[in-house]
Design a protein that fits this description.
The protein is of the alpha+beta class. It folds into 2 domains: 11-151, 3-Layer(aba) Sandwich (Rossmann fold), CATH 3.40.50; 155-350, no CATH class. 27% of the residues lie in helices and 27% in strands. It is built from 9 helices and 19 strands. Residues 1-9 have low confidence and may be disordered.
């Protein structure tokens, strides 16, 4: 066991502040860790926001107290297009098959270079199970108690509710989403198996992000039409932005054909243009690849996608790639856009969840 807990001057004070039992429960119950090797990956924070190293330390201390075989590595902040630090890549290469990965990152883990283009594919191929929390660098340190509350949920009960909703969406043909901000969109899911992020990953190759929970689905081809009025938060190139003025996207046959001109909309459009110019196959940059429904009643929209998209009473639409969960869109981006207080109809009937 490698003890690499970073810069804890008073371990007992830290232990109480971060509610260590929450993290021990995740290791024991969500991941069901026994004798597997654990690699905990964090970074050094972003500016004065240190939630990534704080949570990384919390998992490290939890693993130590449980007597688990763990190692902790830290890297520098990574923006879109950056390569992960060499130490991270080397540790991933050395990790025994069927290990456990725990990732807490201020933005992104970065490109994995010789490990492979896709972290999820790497984990699946090596049968590693994992949990990850990204974009933590844009959340104030004062939000730490709130973040821990979002992690401290009844995962078994949430899994039941998530699975019930997943089955409903999987059997659906047409989902209609609207809200007072102006969303009015039809999203065809006929024949598509919906996915869920429950926060419980006990089998080899399973993984997802924390906090849980959500149900999400790729579309049936390009059969998406209407308006998405984003009034929660938008994910752009290297950050998440809370919405002050509604961003409206006009969607025709699954593709963004028009974006309004609010300040936030201009930032999103600039991100899409950047991705378009960088991509070898730019068509996927402009396509809607996911509809997701948040189910975590302890979460709320704070300007971090990992939290915002899980918030109960929200829907998010992702622009870009969905190939990693069964869709056909391959893109260099996957940008979640969160709307508030949606009305959802499934095959003409109001969805009560």
């Amino acid at each position: 066991m490698t003890n690499q807990i970073k810069e804890i001057v008073n371990k007992e004070k830290f232990r109480n502040k971060i509610r260590i039992e929450v993290f021990k429960s995740i290791l024991k119950n969500n991941l069901n860790i026994k004798k597997e090797k654990i690699l905990i990956i964090g970074d050094k924070g972003y500016q004065n926001n240190l939630l990534s190293p704080i949570l990384t330390n919390a998992y490290s201390l939890a693993a130590e107290e449980l007597g688990l075989d763990y190692e902790t590595v830290y890297q520098n902040f990574k923006g879109r297009g950056d390569v992960a630090d060499k130490i991270v890549i080397e540790k991933l290469k050395m990790l025994p098959r069927k290990s456990v990965l725990i990732i807490n990152i201020s933005n992104r883990i970065g490109s994995l270079d010789t490990v492979g283009l896709s972290f999820r594919k790497f984990a699946k191929d090596k049968e590693h199970r994992f949990i990850s929390s990204s974009s933590l660098g844009f959340i104030s340190n004062s939000k730490l108690p709130f973040i821990i509350d979002c992690l401290d949920i009844d995962y078994k009960e949430m899994k039941k509710k998530t699975e019930t909703l997943r089955k409903i969406i999987s059997k659906a043909k047409i989902i209609h989403v609207s809200n007072k901000a102006g969303t009015d969109l039809t999203y065809n899911v006929e024949g598509i198996e919906a996915k869920s992020a429950t926060g419980i990953y006990r089998n080899p190759g399973e993984g997802g992000n924390l906090p849980g929970s959500e149900v999400y689905t790729a579309p049936n081809g390009n059969k998406i039409n209407g308006i998405i009025a984003i009034d929660g938060s938008i994910r752009v190139k290297n950050k998440t932005i809370l919405i002050n003025s509604v961003v409206k996207l006009t969607i025709e046959n699954g593709r963004i054909v028009k974006i309004n001109k609010t300040p936030e909309a201009k930032i999103l459009e600039a991100t899409l243009m950047w991705a378009h110019n960088k991509a070898k196959n730019p068509d996927g940059v402009w396509k809607i690849g996911e509809l997701g429904i948040g189910l975590n009643k302890k979460a709320k929209i704070i300007g971090s996608t990992i939290i915002d998209e899980k918030t109960y009473g929200t829907v998010h639409f992702a622009i870009g790639s969905n190939s990693w969960f069964g869709g056909k869109i391959k893109s260099i981006i996957h940008l979640d856009q969160v709307i508030k207080n949606p009305t959802i109809k499934v095959d003409g009937k109001f969805l009560d969840y």
